[in-house]
Amino acid sequence: MAGVLLGQVVPSDGALIKLLENIDKCSKLPRWTSTPFDIIVLDEFQDCNPETFWLVECFVRANNLRKGGQPARIVVLGDERQSI
C-alpha cells in the first residue's frame, strides 16, 4: 500500500515512520498515478497502529479522488482475539 501511495518501497515500520516524519499529516495527499481500486481489502486489521491507520486513510482518500470521488468498497478483516 505504501509503495503504491508514496511511489517507493517501504521495507519496514521504521522506514514508514521516517517517511511520515517527513510528510505533514495535514498536507495534501500524495499524487496517485496507479489505476484506482473498486474494492480495498484490509487484512490483519487488529495489528493496525496509528501510523498504519494514517497510511490506510490517505490511501483510501487518494484512491477515491482518483476514482472521481466515487468511494471504493472497503472490506476490513481482523480477529479480536489476536493482537500483537
Automatic annotation (TrEMBL):
A Pfam family: UvrD-helicase
UvrD-like helicase ATP-binding domain span: 16-84
Keyword Magnesium attributed: no
Keywords recorded for this protein, A-Z: ATP-binding, Helicase, Hydrolase, Nucleotide-binding
Any GO molecular function: hydrolase activity
Domain of life: Eukaryota
Keyword Hydrolase among UniProt keywords: yes
Protein's name in the database: UvrD-like helicase ATP-binding domain-containing protein
